[in-house]
Amino acid sequence: MTVDQRPIEIDDALWEELIEITDGKAAPCFQCGVCTAACPWGLVRGDPLSVRSIMRGAQLGFLEAQEAIWLCTACGQCEIYCPREVPIVDVFQGLRQLLWERRKTPAGLTTVLWSVYWNNNPLSQPPSQRMGWAEGLDLQAYDSSKHEILMYFGCTASYDSRAQSVARAIVQLLRAADVSFGTLGEEEPCCGEAVLRLGHSPYFQDVAQHATDIFEKIKVGKLVTVSPHCFDVFKNHYPHINESFKPIHYTEYIAGLIEGNRLILEGSLSSKITYHDPCLLGRVNESTHYPRVILETVPDARVIEMPQSGPDTLCCGGGGGRMWMETPPGERFSDLRIQEALDVDADIIATACPLCISCLEDSIGSMGVTKLKVHDIAEIAQMALGEVSKNDPVEE
Ligand code: SF4
Ligand code: SF4
């Protein structure tokens, strides 16, 4: 046996800091390696993400493989299988926080944080354009005394031209069901999910407090999100706002409207549809039922499952702040996902997350796939509205 003789830099303070930052959550790790085997990076890299080694390095007080710490997509797959229930995503975020404190973050990530600070969005877009997508829709300012829900569109659906189509589809569905809803317009606060996932916990606390102050001021009750990322961060990472604050992902809300006969989908859509569960919906928040309720209600649509579905979904690769980092061709999980959809002979791969749409459509483009389309579930439901949807088709 040969021994690796490369010197390592021991950081005596690291473990204590890590214990403090992660509240001791990494301590139970006993190095079984199940997490490394479960991690999807092993599907696309000859040199997989060794989650086990990262945990061990932190236990011993050194931060080796710093590049690897930025690979985690926060997909949660490893946590499902970890026999010691180590909250691995939290540990990665803690390690990222230590790298921020040591000024060892990848170039470019500071731009994301500064954009949240200056622009109220991580996309470096002007705050004055936040509602540009809604021109002509005559959206109302939220009033808790008269609106059933606050519709929270989020930064990606507000600024990304592809995701804006999803926002418009949701507005049309709510109107078709006669739901009274309001928005915060240009005052809508960034939820801070990008900040949280990139590991800058102190700044995330500031962003969350700012948003909390706004929600409390307007006495928000039901808040419906477009993105599972906003939904997850409000539900699981915000300090308790008040007892009536209830974040809901739009798939749950729309499914409720269908089940309550407020929304009728009667337009035929003769397609084979397979559903890609976003990690933060299908796995982390165990919401696999509502998206399928919507799809199975669409007349003439045939819903088929891919091998990796529900809580065992395959990550698209866009979470955990990875949207702000380059992933080289050949290492994109979404390529594998598109191949899975092709293998089950789907016409449409549906999803319910703006970041999944972006990753899946990038893969469709780079793989030269023409027979498969990516649609958000809201767009599919909009198409199935019948006559109404024919007047306002989904943008391709
Ligand atoms: S699966 Fe859990 S216990 Fe096993 S190496 Fe990974 S973190 Fe440690
Ligand atoms: S959360 Fe996902 S990407 Fe991150 S280490 Fe676990 S399995 Fe890998």
How does this model look, in words?
With 396 residues, the protein is of the alpha/beta class. The chain folds into three domains: 12-101, Orthogonal Bundle (Fumarate Reductase Iron-sulfur Protein, Chain B, domain 2), CATH 1.10.1060; 109-257, Rossmann fold (3-Layer(aba) Sandwich); 264-391, Rossmann fold, CATH 3.40.50. 45% of the residues lie in helices and 7% in strands. It is built from 20 helices and eight strands. It has a four-stranded parallel beta sheet with strand order 2-1-3-4. Helix 13 (228-237) links the parallel strand 3 and strand 4. Helix 1 crosses helix 7 (88-101). The chain is globular, with a radius of gyration of 21 Å.
Radius of gyration: 21 Å
Number of strands: 8
- How many helical elements? 20
Largest sheet strand order: 2-1-3-4
Q: What does the main sheet amount to?
A: 4 strands, parallel
The first-level CATH class of the largest domain is given as Alpha Beta
Considering DSSP H and I runs of 4 or more, what fraction of the residues is helical?
40-55%
Q: pLDDT average, as an integer?
A: 92
Q: Predict the CATH topology of the largest domain.
A: Rossmann fold
Distinct ligands: iron/sulfur cluster
Set down the secondary structure blueprint.
Elements: H1 12-21, H2 34-38, H3 41-44, H4 51-60, H5 66-69, H6 77-81, H7 88-101, H8 109-119, E1 149-152, H9 154-159, H10 161-176, E2 181-182, H11 193-197, H12 201-217, E3 222-225, H13 228-237, E4 246-249, H14 250-259, E5 272-275, H15 279-283, H16 289-297, E6 302-304, H17 333-343, E7 348-351, H18 354-367, E8 373-376, H19 377-383, H20 387-391
Parallel strand pairs: 1-2, 1-3, 3-4, 5-6, 5-7, 7-8
Helix pairs in contact: 1-7, 10-19, 14-16, 17-18
The protein binds iron/sulfur cluster (SF4) (2 copies).
